[in-house]
Amino acid sequence: MTILHRLSFSLLLATTLLAGCSSHTTSPEVVDRTATTSQNIEGLLRKAETLPATPAADLKLQAARMLAQNGDETRAVDILDSINLAQIPPTLAFEVAKLKTLLVSGSEDPAEALKLLDPNRLGALPVAQQAELGQLRADIWLQQNNSIAAVRELIVSSLLTLDPTEQQHYHNRIWQVLQQTPLNGIKSATSANNNYQEQGWFELAMMLRSSTDMAGRQQALENWSVLWESHPALTLPPAGLMGLEFDGEQLFAQRIGVILPLSGDLAKPASAIRKGMEAQIEVMRREGKPVPQLIMFDSTGVTDVTPLLQQARQQAVDFLLGPLTPSLINQLSSLPEQNIPVLALNSAEAGPSRPWQLELSSEHEARMVVRRALADGHRNLLIISPAAEWGDRIADVMKEELESAGGQVTGNMRYEASGNYSDQIAELLQIRGSAERKKKLRHPSQFKQYRRQDADAILMTAQPDPARLIKPMLNYHFASDMPIYATSHLYPGSPNPVRDVDMDGITFCDLPWLLQPPSETHRLLNSKGEDTLSRFGRLFALGADAIKAYPWLPQLEQNPGSFLLGETGRLAMDSNKRLLRELSCTTFTSGTPASLTSSQAATNKN
């Protein structure tokens, strides 16, 4: 039994013992408050011997509860066993069976618990007890690692209640269990003899789980919605299905302070972030939504965050975006008290005032690439990265992420920009060793060269020019069949089939801003002549998401599993108040990212 299931039964048992039986058919027995608990129990049992079946069962149930509260579960079960369920009303029979089930479940006998809660043994129950019965049976199925059976029970319970709040609870639970169910189990369930509600849930889980990137999931959800337009999961979507429900309570700031360097080396990237914020605000204004006023604070050369906070308070700022500089962010985090909420634009160390964080980090992207390779079933990988500090840092992150998931790095190549890629790749793939073996053969003409066989895929970090040379060399050295997963460093930002055809077959992950059809914010910046399709252009997306996300930060923090679809990725929050970005992933096909080709094809078709 998992810890989650133990906790579930412990809570149910405590609730059952404290709540008492709400379906008594006789008045509660009055027991002398000065008597000991033992005397109370014995008094109840003696009284039960003189009464008909139903009031006797009622008193025995009270006695069993007292025994269970005192830790004498064995005797409690013996007393419950003496009650003939067939002779008492179904409502009371359910309370007896429920208590016994919880006591038996604590002794690790889920199969026996299922027998006790067999609906056929209990008779016609009121709707509320039928729903509760389904919840209990679902917990027991989960103990037996049968999540599909648990889902079926929860679906029945969800259909028994007319209370939207209760229905939402059931839908959330159904989706949570389906998300933890192996994909093969869901696939098998879709082929079973299901009713409308069951089939809809299973197909929803199957379609979304089979999609590996944000765009695919969104399309799968749209397809499912067309086929299942009357399904309860569409009427009351479970938490985490479509992201945040946009009717919840939001933050709203009338005056947002933006802490960015307005001059110096970082002024140009800071300007792009600011323009992204302004464009998102303009889109909100056009949609008739209330919009904040941006108040700029210059952090150029600032080494102490305190004066910036003083300025923000003097300007009556409601919310802060920024700063960019890690040292200033960490000062914010270490403050004993900070009464202005902050969304920092870089990572923050732990501290009493740790702010929310949104960042464009190469390390985060590297982890995404590794997870994509792992999701495709690869465990033994080679790493190719530039011989530079930033390349080493990303390679280390890839190795850490891979090994933490049970994979391993079987070889690595630190390429020199001015080096001989052919020689370096031949060494990585151990082709030279293969050639040496050829020299020793008696009949060299029969020899066939081959690459190393202890790796099944490649992780790569490379700028565009090296990437366009490395991929053909990998093909030349017998690695054309090895999948390659790369960070976005190889993609300049705009499609060019002639320039990038040599990268065909490489899968890489990047912002939806660059790999999906342009949003209203993106189109607005394009109309103003901004260079949005470039590595530098990614900063527009960061600024846009800072504005898009800030109203929903408390909900994202308080509701694990909820997310927001942003320009920089699908945004969800971890326990360190950091917005994690799930990126779009695509593969070069005929020199163009496939997601862009698909989007264009869909546009032309429509």
From TrEMBL:
Pfam families per UniProt: LppC
Keyword NAD included in the entry's annotation: no
Transmembrane segments: none
One Gene Ontology biological process: regulation of cell shape
UniProtKB keywords: Cell outer membrane, Cell shape, Lipoprotein, Membrane, Palmitate, Peptidoglycan synthesis, Signal
Gene Ontology terms: cellular component: periplasmic side of cell outer membrane
Endpoints of the signal sequence: 1-19
Keyword Signal included in the entry's annotation: yes
GO MF assignments: enzyme regulator activity
Entry protein name: Penicillin-binding protein activator
Origin species: Marinobacterium marinum
